[in-house]
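Consortium newsletter contribution from the modelling node. Members have asked for a concrete example of what our holo predictions look like. Here is one, prepared for the guanosine-5'-diphosphate complex that several groups have been discussing at recent meetings.
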Amino acid sequence: MQTVKMVVTGPYSAGKTQFIRTISEIDVVSTERKISSEAERLKDATTVAMDFGRITIDDDLILYLFGTPGQRRFDFMWEILTEGMLGFIVLIDSVRPETFREARNILEVFRGYAQTPYVVSANKQDMPDAWSPEDLRIALKIDKNIKVLPCVATDKESVKQTILELLYSILEGIEE
Amino acid sequence: MALQGNLRDFSTTQLLNLVSLAKKTGAMTLETDDNSALLYFREGKLIHASTNNRAGRLADMLLEAGKLAEKQVKAIERQPKQLSDKALGIDLIRSGVVTQQDIIKSVKDFMLDVVYSLFSWTEGLFNFNPGVKPSNDRITVPLNLDNVILEGSRRIQENERLVDELPHLDRVSLKVTDKPLRDVKLTPDDWRVISHIHPRNTIAQIAQANSMDEFQIRKIVYGMLQAGLVEIIKPEGVQTQKKFMSRAEKKLAKKQTPTMKRSMVERLINRIKRV
Ligand SMILES: Nc1nc2c(ncn2[C@@H]2O[C@H](COP(=O)(O)OP(=O)(O)O)[C@@H](O)[C@H]2O)c(=O)[nH]1
Ligand SMILES: [Mg+2]
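And here is the predicted structure:
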């Protein structure tokens, strides 16, 4: 049995959990929640909440989707997550320009960890205030060789298309 | 499709750069608590600018440029029939009061002045309305934004913002783009940086070679990045790969040939298509 993984990253509230939930065949184990008490905060410091989805490809291949944890104190998880991944998806919250700079930084850090292919997903395109993928490409200085895809994470077709585009990029990247 | 937000998150410089690169046509409004501005663009060039207290009418622009005296402006304002800016311009040229060059230069200087004043707006809402044009009677002069963007970046004073934009000076190098440098106004410091650009030099090394501190180098590089003169690349000949491979990766690397990987990715594609 072979397993492969893809990582879904992006700023807080970009739609990572939603994205994975929409396509996964199992319940996404997102345990992110508001931490109420100080005691709970301390207890929580030892655990990391992460989104985790699965798509069974065939009898001996499984694709896992990992969503990066939202809180900055879990950034150390990124390096662990990126190890051996097939590729990654950077979700942008297209309606919140205040998160663009962070998105850009996350993207840079990920590129530093791994030279794997990636795509940028301009999420929440169903909302009237959404910036267009073309404007986001310029605003976030996305390289012209990288796909910036429109996405609505609540829509299965849209999520499917994003993953497929990443797979096409991966295919192109495999040397002859 | 919206293009709106707060200048806190996306600065005036970045905004102008976006409009310029995307060659947008339309109207941009900017609003702070006590100021507002209205900029019109055509195919990425600024063609008209005004603020809540500077309406951008021809007579005022010529007054600011010293081409008309206060008295003359008053006289124009007293005319029973208000001329449009275009008609007034023609009148003034015909009667030999100003030349066409005077008008173009005054309008450009006025627009520059308005735009530069916007660089100090660090907070405020912006909203772009595609396709909207200035009213027909206004005089529009296309102004290339490259120099404006460079100058705007030079005026950035907050180090924090620069660090956000360019966090890791020691991990990236620069590459000069195909954009012609001839038309932009570069400072000697800009040129000192450009002369050190090489795939093997990180930005930190360029700074060191020029005895620039981090704030200085960030400001210069940021300006040139914004104006599209340079781009960030990964340094050559530097160990950027991870130093070690995980066990899983070693296993994969040993086992997987490109053909095997391709067939695996194809299986993934076929399956995802059927989800
Ligand atoms: N309208 C709309 N809302 C979305 C979309 N994707 C996510 N959301 C909502 O955005 C919020 C944050 O999403 P979530 O998946 O929790 O973000 P995360 O922090 O990246 O995991 C939730 O309320 C989602 O329902 C989308 O494509 N369109
Ligand atoms: Mg989440």
